[in-house]
Amino acid sequence: MTTLTMRHMDKLTLTGYSTTILMPTMENVDEVSKQKSAHFGTLAQSGKFGALMAGSRDKIGYAVGTTGNESLSYFAGANTATVAEDVEQLVLPANDYVVLTAEGAPSRTLFDRLIRQFFGEILPNHPELEYEDTYVIEALLNGNPMDAVVELAVPVKVK
Asked: Are 6 and 50 in contact (CB under 8 A)?
């Protein structure tokens, strides 16, 4: 079951690691999904993501996709006190968001479903919502990527 709400979120500073992947389209979602999973897999296997989560202030794993000219910057991180030499910081501004939640399946499956739902159904059917094609936040709320509780937060302006 998917739940949709509007929520104002305060500024959030995340610490983590980014990679560059394909620019997502409705046609290549499966390939983009594989690239996102590979990024998380690499961070998990190296222990880097676990180290970030060990110092997490809210116990939520975050991923942020930020669009560029030809590609997507995909950032995986946490709201953490952990410091390491090779990490990056990403500051998300305070904003109003459409927030979609889902649970009961692998996290990547749920995120892909919510992304398709937002861009394929919600945005086209809600002309009062303005999305500036900047970034999307994926949040794993329960720490279990195989039986996940997730949120997809998309910054919007209401016209």
From this structure: no
Rounded (10°) CA dihedral 49, 140, 154, 81: -40
Q: Decide: 57 and 51 in contact? Cβ < 8 Å.
A: no
Q: What is the pLDDT of residue 83?
A: 86
What's the pTM value of the predicted model, to 2 decimals? 0.93
C-alpha 78/C-alpha 42 separation (Å) is 16
CB 51 within 8 A of CB 84: yes
Q: Report the chain (159 residues): mean pLDDT per 10 consecutive residues.
A: 85 97 87 95 95 96 92 96 91 95 96 93 92 91 96 93
The predicted pLDDT at position 68 comes to: 83
Q: Where are the chain's structural domains? A: 3-158
Residue 3 backbone dihedrals phi, psi, to 5 degrees? -115, 140
3-158: in CATH 3.20.80.10: yes
What is residue 23's three-state secondary structure? coil
